[in-house]
Amino acid sequence: MKIRIKGEFHSMGKKTAWEVESSIWIRPLKKKGVIKQLKERGLILVTYFDHKDVRRVKEFHVSLLESVKVRKFRGKTDTIVKRDQVNTEFEKVREFHKAFKYPMNDNPTPMSKEMILNRTGFIAEELIEALHATSFNENEFNALYTEFRLRLSQSFHKQVVKPYPRNYFDVLTGQIDSCTDISYFNKGDFTILGTCPDPIFNIVHEANMNKLHADGYPRYNEHGKIIKPEGWVAPEPLIEKEIQRQKKKK
Predict the structure, then answer these.
(1) Can you give the residue range of the structural domain that contains 37?
(2) Do 207 and 242 have their domain in common?
(3) pTM for this predicted structure
(4) Which residues of the chain have pLDDT under 50?
């Protein structure tokens, strides 16, 4: 008999700790999954991808699960590596792209012109939101936006005189270099904000993954916009709570 006590399962005198969002091995399916919820009577709600790469959510008894101590995502195969490489932000975003059928590649592949415009457009939208969040009124917002456009123009004129890529590998290398710089600057933003982004990232990721319905599939309206399932919770209140927690801790 196994009894759950504060996230722990006791079985035949042996105690095993289980944590939400930790990776596990599903013995009957011979697949890896991620714990989403600890339930009563030794049941654990697990999400995983079936043989058709479709995301599923299902309950398993703890006796059918095994803790995963080493894992690394590499295309559709797994390679044993150190535990500190498990559940990175990159892997979680891959999980999101895979679940919602967003573009993804298993090997280094340059983005097309249309794709790079889409991706930089998404980033630009978030940058404009950041400017708006820093403004107390429309005049301040307009002033920040005007200065932002000026700096964009300066960056354009700085780049236009530089050599252009000679081949697609140059394109790939340049895109990866730019994306890495964006990621590095982003971490610098949180350093300036004095805020650890890891728990906040997990809150946003969980909210995104919870847009899947009970059968593990997303729903879309006629315009292609994701239809959130009933009971979906927006991440903003949890983000505010986490920020308050970090402020009190420091």
Answers:
(1) 22-64
(2) yes
(3) 0.66
(4) 1-15, 70-86
